[in-house]
Amino acid sequence: MYGGFVNRSSRDVIGAAPAQGCEQTGVTGGANRHPGFADDSQGNFVKFAILLPEQPSKRRDIRILSTVLPVIEMATRVVTAPGGLLQNLRIEIDHRDTQCSSTYGALGAFDIFLKRKPDVFFGPICDYVIAPIARYSSVWGIPLITTGGLNEAFSLKAPNYRTLTRMIGNYQAFGLMMREMHRHYNWTIQAYLYHEWDEKSGRGFTDCSMAITSINRAIGGNETSTGTFDEETAKYADYLRLLRNIEKRARIIAM
Fold it and tell me: Gene3D superfamilies in the record, alphabetically (predicted)?
């Protein structure tokens, strides 16, 4: 029944030597083996690869290694215990700190893959890290499960994201919901006020920005105004100025 999860061929180490350049901070990580894992020549095993940041990229985001990894380890002990759902399998857990970086996240994925091909990736959660690793996973034939990836570009499964599974909704669905709300109340003029980083910061687009893009694409044709701020640096006076400017152009404001 669970044969599809068993990684028989990956017992052969793909790379005998450590991947060059993967010993730097943020890429190294440890494999967490259960007792008896020293000998992989007997029985079947499954390898989990956990790709998450050690530090949250956003305030109040608890999807980090220190909170997720212990839960997966606890679940692993339960399902592999006598009478458990996977009692005949052994589970190996390896993890890397992605730093929410498309560079270090991808290096971490390659480091795990070269040591021994994993059966599944849990994470990453940051869109700019998901994109390259999901493409590699599609080529490697490895499922990637994430609670991130809300950007509607990830809905295009072929050819790049065939093995990507998102355990949450997406901005496209949010945009369709907003479209129906606008139609119901006959809103034709609206404004958007949202958090956006300075382009010179090199941090890409914020989640708010990507959500607003999906809303605009779904609604289409309506008259819109936008105002942006950096929530890390904006002051009370900045918010007041934005609101006073927007109130002259729209009555409905989405934040």
Answer: 3.40.50.2300
Tell me the pTM.
Answer: 0.71
Q: How many CB atoms within 10 Å of residue 83?
A: 7
The domains of the chain, with CATH numbers, are 45-166 (3.40.50.2300), 171-247 (3.40.50.2300)
Q: Which residues contact 193 (CB under 8 A, 6 or more apart)?
A: 226, 227, 228, 229, 242, 243, 246, 253, 254, 255
The answer to whether the CB of 130 falls within 8 A of the CB of 148 is yes
DSSP string across the chain: --GGG--SGGGS-S-SSPPTT-SSTTT---EE--TTTT--SSSEEEEEEEEE-SS-SSTT---SHHHHHHHHHHHHHHHHSTTSTTTTEEEEEEEEE-TT-HHHHHHHHHHHHHHS--SEEE---SHHHHHHHHHHHHHHT--EEES---SGGGG-TTTT-TTEEESS--HHHHHHHHHHHHHHHT--EEEEEEE---GGG-----HHHHHHHHHHHHH-SSEEEEEEE-TTT--HHHHHHHHHHHTTT-SEEE-
